[in-house]
Amino acid sequence: MTNAPMTDSPAQNSAFHGDRLRGILIVDLGAQYTQLIARRVREAGAWSEIHSATKAVEAAQHMDLAGIILSGGPASVYAEGAPQVPDELFRLGVPVLGICYGMQWMCRALGGAVEGGHTREFGHTPLTVDESKGLFQSVPNQSVVWMSHGDKVTRLPAGFQVLAHSADCAFGAVGDPERGFYGVQFHPEVSHTQHGTQLLSNFVIGICGLAGDWKPASIAEHQIQRIKEQVGETGEVILGLSGGVDSSVAAMLMHQAIGDRLHCIFVDNGLLRHGERESIEAMFGQHFGMDLTTVDARDRFLERLAGVTDPEVKRKRIGHEFVEVFREEAKRFTQANFLGQGTLYPDVIESVAEHGGQTAMIKSHHNVGGLPEDLELDLVEPLRELFKDEVRAIGRYLGLHESVLMRQPFPGPGLAVRIVGEVNHERCEMLRRADHIVTSEIEAAGAHHGLWQYFAVLLPLHSVGVMGDARTYEYTCALRLVESTDGMTADWGYLDRGLLRRISSRIVAEVRGFNRVVLDISSKPPATIEWE
């Protein structure tokens, strides 16, 4: 295998070979943020898929495989129960890049040695490049990378050479260019590593030979074709339309694929934001001309949530009720055997250990973890393998207005997961009014630019206050302002002091039941964006 198998043939390097996607297989070995690797690969203009080690060989056979990346992970390669990388992956004739645990496993499997490190490396670490070509093409000789390891490679396999080192790690990056095997002890996928995106691009484009032509148009046309194939000539799809970015783009893709055989169902579950129902009916029913039915299920959902305080139970009950509504509506259509959803990749990864048994579940999403086992509708999820920014790019390609595309994300369970504790009509109305004050004030001031999300949360915490010279003992409202690019990691945002004062004053004065407003200054991680 050569170091750079790039050819002049567009067909060979294109994202499509027949009906198979040409791209990179990412093997999840237990890293919590393996999806960041997938994002970086796609940012380089190449398709990527994440699969567990147990499913990696099968996944490779269903792809037009250009290369493999082995993720990091918290285990030691010699520990009992550690994730196992199939040896077959090293015999597929494609380049392989191991990251942290992935590098250690590869080196050990190919004849090297790994031991517990006497000196551990965590955090920002200066790196010196010894071989400024191939994997490190256009990367400075001196830079800072993000290390997070206790074990380390102590002997390289035959054919490997040192590509970079740090003060405490002689084998900071290694490679066997002849076979196309590479390893880095640091994490190039995280933003803390300088030039990490360049390194991954070097692997994907320069070493694996991909053309970097995976664009929104490619994604959209591919998904439209997949919908056509899945639904067939006569099948009909019921789509739960919320009006958010995800369900809107999913609706556009399905509408282009099957036309009026798409039946959009908007469920008013009583957990919506201010004015949501009216705007959705106007946009999709009137403007886009889609078949849209509004189901008033406010009482039904609130009854199911009565007395429930556990957030996972909330999500599952809401998800179950959504499906029941869709089942009932589907009876109106003789060929409606499919349920469409706007599920995203982060939803899947956070909800279940989808790609690796070692990856921890964070929380379930109503459109991932809340579906019953006896679901009689086949799922159509054209966004399931995509990230939010990719979905927005597809929406632009399809002609959706920026007001829809840049609308801040809203969780499927709605206000139910922004009301900590029991959900009822009174609390929903309180939060709906407070949230409308937050969003309208921020947008009127133009302060929403740069914010990923901005909303109110109702806390079941009473505190003493003074209003009109009288003692009060009422709820607390939290402001959640976050900055992010994809929702997978996020930092807290801040507003002008005058704007914060105006929001706080209006909530306390206009929404009966609140006497205190607080600002959430938690990043993700360790917190999540939503409170539940």
Features:
globular, disordered N terminus, 3 domains, 15 helices, ten-stranded mixed β-sheet, Rossmann fold, 532 residues, alpha/beta
Kindly describe this structure.
- The chain has helices at 10-13, 34-43, 56-61, 101-109, 196-207, 216-231, 245-258, 276-287, 298-305, 311-330, 345-351, 388-398, 402-405, 425-444, 497-510, and strands spanning 16-17, 20-28, 47-52, 64-70, 96-99, 113-129, 142-155, 161-165, 173-176, 181-184, 236-240, 262-268, 291-296, 336-340, 378-380, 453-467, 470-483, 491-492, 514-520.
- The protein has 3 domains: 10-207, Rossmann fold (3-Layer(aba) Sandwich); 216-405, Rossmann fold, CATH 3.40.50.620; 418-520, GMP Synthetase, Chain A, domain 3 (2-Layer Sandwich).
- The chain contains 15 helices and 19 strands.
- Strands 1, 2, 3, 4, 5, 6, 7, 8, 9 and 10 form a 10-stranded mixed beta sheet that branches. A 5-stranded parallel beta sheet has the order 13-12-11-14-15, sandwiched between helices. Strands 16, 17, 18 and 19 form a 4-stranded mixed beta sheet that branches.
- The model is unreliable at 1-18 and 352-371 (pLDDT under 50).
- α14 (425-444) runs antiparallel to α15.
- The protein is of the alpha/beta class and 532 residues long.
